[in-house]
Prior knowledge:
Blueprint: E1 5-14, E2 17-27, E3 32-36, H1 43-50, E4 58-63, E5 66-67, H2 73-79, E6 83-86, H3 98-109, H4 114-127, H5 143-155, E7 161-165, H6 173-190, E8 193-197, H7 201-206, E9 210-215, E10 218-224, H8 225-228, H9 234-241, H10 252-261, H11 278-283, H12 297-307, E11 314-315, H13 318-321, H14 332-353, H15 361-400, H16 407-445, H17 448-454, H18 459-497, H19 502-512, H20 515-541, H21 546-579
Parallel strand pairs: 3-8, 3-9, 6-7, 7-8
Antiparallel strand pairs: 1-2, 1-4, 4-5, 9-10, 10-11
Helix pairs in contact: 3-4, 3-5, 4-5, 14-18, 14-20, 15-16, 15-18, 16-18, 16-19, 16-20, 16-21, 18-20, 20-21
This protein binds adenosine-5'-triphosphate.
Adenosine-5'-triphosphate binds near residues 42, 43, 45 and 544.
Amino acid sequence: MGGSIEVTGLSKTYGRQNIWHDVTLTLPPGEITAMMGPSGTGKSVFLKSLIGLVQPEEGQVLVDGVDMVSVPESHKLELRKKFGILFQDGALFGSMSVYDNVAFPLREHTRLKEPQVRDVVMEKLDMVGLVGQEHKLPGEISGGMKKRAGLARSLVTDPEIILIDEPDSGLDPVRTSNLAQLLIEVNAATDATMLVVTHNIELARTLPDNIGMLYRRELVMFGPREAFLITDHPVVSQFMSGDPDGPIGMSEETDHRRSEAFDYSGGYPDAGMFHSGARAIEVVPRQLQPRSGAVRPSAERHRERVASGRAPLYVADDEESDQARPIARPSLPVRSLTATGSLFALALDTLRNLFRRPFRAGETLEQFWFVVSVSWVPAILISIPLGAVIALQLGTLTTQLGAQSFTGAASVLAIVQQAAPMVTTLVIAGAGGAAICAELGSRTIRDEIAAMRVMGLNPVHRLVVPRTLACVGAAVLLNGLVSVVGVLGGYFFNVMLQGGTPGAYLSSFTALAQIADLWIGEIKAVIFGFIAAVVACYRGLNTAPGPKGVGDSVNQSVVVTFLLLFFVNSVLTALYLTLVPMKGA
Ligand SMILES: Nc1ncnc2c1ncn2[C@@H]1O[C@H](COP(=O)(O)OP(=O)(O)OP(=O)(O)O)[C@@H](O)[C@H]1O
């Protein structure tokens, strides 16, 4: 029998937006449940909170007795292996073929040999009608096909709990019916617990054993399909009939006014009360049955629960439903501290995962090449004028002080210790970091990262570590390059324009500088490269929905990196000057 999920007092907010509060329900093991509700009522957020992809502020989600809300992330990764999930647009990995996407969980989590993997993958692809399309990339197939490929991937490990977000979006009515039929066959064959989030009334009327509805920040009704469909509840009956007249309008904001104006004189049905008889026969259609003739064990259990009165219909209290909940939003300092703490936690997690096997050499090299290729030209173009300006300024100053022979040492130290690591990392953050943040942000809003987490994979190990090593490697390499170009630029301007002598420029450097002065530049490059990468990855992985969310993340990642770099540079410089004695001092 499938896994059990018991939700108690669950509440979720985003900023000032209360998504839903105090949601309590149980998904009966092995049964199919549909969650309905107008757009934007938080159905997808609810589904993600069951699997620990969204962190609710209050409440519990017991998955086979373990609370998904409070267990540590490492335990969540294990618990998620019980789940299969189909995200709204399939959440396929864009760089892999349909075949590799479906094979991915098997290759990661089982010891099956490639021929066995092939058998399972082809069986699931056949089930969803995608045989012949397996070599295509996700970008080359339609939205409906992506959805079916996502379903095949979610079924490939025979999960105990299957979560499906809007299976019908992007599908025509015939394919929607076929998909519904497929889901009932899967349930009959596996007895998995299933939750289907949908707007599709026909699907909700014929597929599930139980139905729930979210509306205006709460669960308005939840219970057996046969009780839910015959209710007189104004919100539920309007939604199920698709009637434009009623408390539900164009948006939740205006619904508040419509709701006040609506005549509720018919009253609400009593919780736990079943309406039966002629009306039930009229409005409750026959539930879909497996074509194979198999008997669904969960359907039998459901009938027993209903007959014995152990499946009451929950109806929210009308008084409660119209009350706006005050949202205790943390103050700005608290939110800033929380974000800083999370960034710091990601940095530590990245360091921990550096030593985890397998080492992803291919992706690290690919990212390294990418960061170097977008950064080296701007880095050099900036370093030439910067070296010149530093040499000219210091040359003028040392001449005024009568110490012109020390121009070389001053310029080289300024370039190697300060300018080169800063320039390198600002360019890496602006070019490479911004691209990394945009890439991870797009993958986040397409639910690719969530899909990875569901498959029990750690995005820090898979994505953040290779990108961090790439940025650190690129920073060290480019720092050397920028230093050389900057020093040559300084030399050229000092010797050609300020009348300095080549011998004095170099000998002053050896007289005043020491090997530690060169090391500090490279150490700074390592630290700054690490900061640029972790900030970019952090913002990318915590992107808000939509293209605007990605844009905001990129912007914040660049600004935050710049601020951190200047701060950390001043601390490192002060430490170096305090701890390392100057040559000749
Ligand atoms: N990561 C996030 N950050 C901020 N707000 C979010 C985030 N994810 C979801 N939301 C907000 O939560 C609300 C509910 O979104 P959700 O996608 O769950 O709605 P839905 O009921 O599934 O809608 P639809 O049926 O249109 O898909 C929306 O207003 C959305 O903007």
